[in-house]
Amino acid sequence: MFETLPLILILLISSVLGVALFRAFRLPAMLAYFLVGIALGPHTFGLLPDSDANREFAEFGIVFLMFSIGLEFSLSQLYAMRSKVLGLGGAQVVITLVVITFIAKLAGLDWSAAFVVGSALAMSSTAIVSKMLAERVDLNSRHGRLSIGVLLFQDIAVVPILVIIPALGITGANLMDVLGLAMLKAAAMLLFLFTLGKWLINPWFNLVASQRSRELFVMNVLMITLLLAFATKLAGLSYALGAFIAGMLISETRYRYQVESDISPFRDILLGLFFISMGMLLDYHQVLDYFPQVLMILVGFILFKAAVVALVVRLVKYETGVAIRTGVILAQAGEFSFVILALGLEQKIINGQALQVVLAAALLSMVIAPFMIQYNGRIARRMVSSYNRNSG
């Protein structure tokens, strides 16, 4: 206890100061957690040990991130935005994933590692984009609605990716058989939970809520989330998939908003630990050694992703200015990029130089993102002279 207390204090003081500083500059808090992880991790000052226990504890951050996404997931919202979500979002994810996977393969990675890289870089940051659009009162603009539609599909696309990556990590097995079995398990679990589970969840929550104990209510939410996460792990899938399903199940109850309010402090703290653990993985010595490659990937990735988004938006008959603004807004990596990279590392699919370079490029893209989003209109008007200030 007394040996670990100084470490906990260092971690808390660093996190509080880092988050306060980043908030003052209107930068995402997750970047402050990354910086704390890099500074205190084994590759810099070495104050935080890179142990299996720490990494496993940080996995709870992924669990509660996926739970929150599942809780906010709305089938009615998905149906209302189906053209933007399925059309634009589907095209963006598929094109970005396929092209980057092939480029990574040509760069010397095997197919499994290339798929992890492609999947990670296909994601954008829901936290950064939604926050910046809300601050700029742009959520209901055309480029704002298009951006949110694409982000919603990315959230959906994470679910099959979380099924596929553990299957890719199994050595010496027929890949198609393993993938088919993993998909079958996921489909069976979803079907079971959304028939029997949906029938049980409402009366159970009514019973717990009738006790009028907030402590019991929060423990019940934690129990269901971790129980389903453990069940999917036992089925050979991932913790995150079970947490997502738990969130979707609870979102169907009338206690959805209460759960979201009660669970947010746990989620934010555990997410902070997850991003600190990802920062600990970054070896700045290797990043400096391979900085030309990091810079090349960063610039190429941002330009390519912006171009893909702009192209698919243009193809559905929006004007060029709106397409460019949407592309600029979504041209970064996201929270799920690190979830995917962490899962790839856990399954021993990606590590070493490839992990360091992609991790650094993804992190730098998120540092740049707030500034790009802030000036997305100016960039569009500079590129398209006919696009006026009141467009979009």
What can you tell me about this protein's structure?
- There is one protein chain.
- The chain is mostly helical.
- The protein is built from 18 helices and no strands.
- It has helices at residues 5-24, 29-40, 52-72, 75-80, 82-106, 111-122, 126-135, 142-168, 175-209, 214-234, 239-251, 256-281, 284-289, 291-315, 320-329, 335-346, 352-374, 376-383.
- The model has no long low-confidence stretch (mean pLDDT 83).
Task: Lay out the secondary structure.
Elements: H1 5-24, H2 29-40, H3 52-72, H4 75-80, H5 82-106, H6 111-122, H7 126-135, H8 142-168, H9 175-209, H10 214-234, H11 239-251, H12 256-281, H13 284-289, H14 291-315, H15 320-329, H16 335-346, H17 352-374, H18 376-383
Helix pairs in contact: 1-2, 2-12, 3-11, 3-12, 5-6, 5-8, 5-14, 6-8, 6-16, 7-8, 7-17, 8-9, 8-15, 8-16, 9-10, 10-11, 14-15, 14-17, 15-18
